[in-house]
Amino acid sequence: xxxxxxxxxxxxxxxxxxxxxxxxxxxxxxxxxxxxxxxxxxxxxxxxxxxxxxxxxxxxxxxxxxxxxxxxxxxxxxxxxxxxxxxxxxxxxxxxxxxxxxxxxxxxxxxxxxxxxxxxxxxxxxxxxxxxxxxxxxxxxxxxxxxxxxxxxxxxxxxxxxxxxxxxxxxxxxxxxxxxxxxxxxxxxxxxxxxxxxxxxxxxxxxxxxxxxxxxxxxxxxxxxxxx
Length: 228
What we know:
The chain is mainly α. It contains 8 helices and 2 strands; from the N terminus they run βααααααααβ.
């Protein structure tokens, strides 16, 4: 069975879904601060990892990684000189999905904090390792990114800046707040909500960009379900 994806409909669904999750994420933080409806608000709490926002991020990363891998295969068949770079990008997104699903960066941060005294913006110590890695990945893919068509280039840039700003940039702000006030304050809760919101918006843009590029190269995007 094959299902053809209507990219216009996918775009509308993503916009509504992300908008709803962003609003509910902020509402959950106010409810958490007030001590109300914790059994319900936890499903949208940015600092609780098994919730609807985290499921959306996992889904967007996995589908984006698969989509970029499919683009890499089409690019290879077309003789695109950047086909290998598409494959590298797919692997990077796949590793981000794995990290998100296994909470690896939190575990790494806890390990680093147990051995070193990180405070202030570096309170969440995983950024010490991940920010240089992000810079290294950018430098590796910089020429590839610059040689993309302008619309595709800036869509990827927008997605990357929003995701990196939410996951890395705001993590530094969260670290400063956590060091000064602790993690049980409304300011920290709202910073966490803003962090998750930027990540979700960035990933929605990434997913739409990947599906649009895959549709442009392949003619249409279909999902095939085959029995063994």
